[in-house]
Amino acid sequence: MKLFTWLYDRMILAAAHRRAPWYLGAVSVAESSFFPIPPDVMLMPMVLARPQQAWRLATLTTVCSVLGGVLGYALGYFAVESVLPLIERAGYGAGWHQVQTLYLEWGIWIVFLAGFSPIPYKLFTIASGFMALPLIPFILASLVGRGGRFFLEAILVSRLGPRMQDSVRRSMEWIGWGLVATAILFYLIV
């Protein structure tokens, strides 16, 4: 059995499920504050399954991600002492200290960059609250950063995805195991 091809097929089937948008919204909220899996792994197959709903799905992901970001902000603002042990146990301790340094240097711009990039956004939402970053600029930077990322993904997948779906499926084992090898290599280097 081909592991990654099987997972890919399951994700495409799940993406077409009638409750999939609810799951996408929940994952988007959770990922921005405490959950380790990004919503992209649901957004892309869902857009592939429903390309005509790309804008709606990107909007849902963005709004829910920003709401989760506000939850992360609140955790950082009100409960950072309780959250720090969880951050350490999750293996983000060194990243947490780097984030604090970045805030001192970049301010609100770091929220925008973190929202758009694949680095763990939750560290920046919690750090924003801990550093008492003004809430409105935090929300605006999150909307622009997260929205830019999710809308770009949705547009690319809705336009290019259907044409590439067969070749991606045929290459899924190579892609999957390549990502595993890259993650292991990255872990060993860092």
| Residue-averaged pLDDT | 84
Number of domains: 1
What's the number of extended β-strand segments?
A: 0
Helix count, per DSSP? 9
Beta-strand fraction estimate: under 5%
Cα Rg: 17 Å
Helix proportion range: over 70%
Main beta sheet strand tally, sense and closure: none
Assign the structural class, choosing from mainly alpha, mainly beta, alpha/beta, alpha+beta, or little secondary structure.
Answer: mainly alpha
Low-confidence stretches at least 5 residues in length (pLDDT < 50)? none
Q: What shape does the CA trace take?
A: globular
Distance between the termini: 33 Å
H-E order: HHHHHHHHH
Describe this structure in words.
Helix content is 83%, strand content 0%. The protein is mainly α. The chain has one domain (3-189). The longest helix has 36 residues, at 54-89. The model has no long low-confidence stretch (mean pLDDT 84).
How does the SSE layout of this entry go?
Elements: H1 3-15, H2 20-31, H3 40-49, H4 54-89, H5 93-106, H6 109-116, H7 121-130, H8 135-170, H9 172-189
Question: Can you summarize this structure?
Answer:
The chain has 190 residues and is mainly alpha-helical. The protein has helices at 3-15, 20-31, 40-49, 54-89, 93-106, 109-116, 121-130, 135-170, 172-189. It has one domain (3-189).
Keywords:
190 residues, mainly alpha, 0% strand, globular, transmembrane helix, membrane
